[in-house]
Specification:
Elements: E1 2-10, H1 15-25, E2 31-37, E3 42-47, H2 53-60, E4 68-78, H3 80-86, H4 89-92, H5 94-114, H6 119-140, H7 142-149, H8 154-158, H9 162-179, H10 183-206, E5 212-213, E6 222-223, H11 226-246
Length: 247
C-alpha cells in the first residue's frame, strides 16, 4: 500500500532546515518521499505503510528539540500495485509520450520549413526542446523534484544539492542547444550528465524498486521503468553522435 499524509511540522526556518529534516525522515525505510515547507510549517510524507507520529518524532530527535511534528490528514491512500495495473501502459506514460511527439513534430516542422533536412540542426532543436520542457516541469516544484531525484540518483544520494544543480544544468543545456553555444562543450556536458544520471535509473529498474521517476519533476507520477532508460539513453546516443561529428 502507498499512502500520503500531511502533517504540521514546526521548527523549520529556512531551506537548510528543510534539508536536515528531509534527510532525517528519509532514513526511515517505509518513507518514500518527503515534501516540506518551512513557510507553511507543513510536511507531506509518502510512505509504504502507516507510521505513528512517535516514529516520525523519534527520527527527528537527533536534530534537537526544536522540530515537532503533529496532526495528520490522509491526502492520498491507494494500493500501488492495484493502481499501476488499473491503468494501461499508454495511460501511465501519456504525458511523456505527448511531450516526445510534440518535440519531434515541431523540430521536424522547422526542418520542413527550411526546405531541407539537416540532421545536426534537427538534433539541436529537438534536444533544446527536450531540456527546456523537462527543466520547466522540474522548476514547478523544485524541492519536490530534488526529494524524488535523490531516491535513486547516485550523486544526489550523497549530495542532495546536486538535484538543484541538475535541474538548472538541464535549463542551461536547453538554451545552449537553442543558440548553438560552444557545440563541443554542450555535447560533452550532455553526454557526461546523462550518462551519470542513467546509472541510478538502471540500478533502480534492475532492482525492481517501485519509486517515482523524477524526469518530469513532481508534477506527473510516473513510475521508474525502461521508458526512463530509453529517454536518458536517447540523449546519450544523440550527444555522442554529435561529439563524433565535430571532432
Amino acid at each position: 500500500m502507498t499512502m500520503k499524509h500531511e502533517y504540521k511540522l514546526t521548527g523549520m526556518t529556512c531551506t537548510s532546515c528543510e534539508e536536515k529534516v528531509r534527510t532525517a525522515l528519509q532514513k526511515i525505510p517505509e518513507i518514500q518521499n518527503v515534501e516540506l515547507s518551512h513557510k507553511k510549517d507543513s510536511a507531506k510524507i509518502t510512505m509504504s505503510s502507516h507510521l505513528p507520529l512517535s516514529a516520525l518524532q523519534d527520527a527527528l530527535q537527533p536534530l534537537g528539540d526544536k522540530y515537532e511534528i503533529t496532526g495528520t490528514e490522509s491526502i492520498e491512500h491507494k494500493g500501488s500495485e492495484a493502481d499501476d495495473h488499473s491503468r494501461s501502459w499508454l495511460e501511465t506514460y501519456k504525458p511523456i509520450l505527448l511531450i516526445f511527439f510534440y518535440l519531434l513534430g515541431v523540430s521536424l516542422l522547422v526542418q520542413w520549413y527550411r526546405g531541407e533536412f539537416q540532421l545536426m540542426n534537427w538534433m539541436h532543436h529537438f534536444m533544446a526542446g527536450f531540456f527546456l520542457v523537462f527543466s520547466f516541469f522540474k522548476m514547478l516544484n523544485l524541492n519536490g523534484f530534488v526529494s524524488s531525484y535523490r531516491m535513486y540518483d547516485v550523486i544526489a544520494k550523497q549530495f542532495p544539492a546536486w538535484g538543484y544543480v541538475y535541474a538548472f544544468t538541464e535549463l542551461a543545456l536547453g538554451v545552449a542547444f537553442l543558440i548553438h553555444f560552444a557545440p563541443l562543450i554542450t555535447y560533452s556536458v550532455t553526454f557526461v550528465v546523462m550518462t551519470v544520471s542513467i546509472i541510478g535509473v538502471l540500478k533502480a529498474v534492475l532492482d525492481k524498486k517501485r519509486i517515482q521517476c523524477a524526469c518530469l519533476g513532481d508534477v506527473f507520477k510516473l513510475p521508474m521503468s525502461t521508458v526512463t532508460i530509453i529517454e536518458d539513453g536517447l540523449m546519450i546516443a544523440m550527444s555522442a553522435f554529435m561529439i563524433f561529428q565535430v571532432l
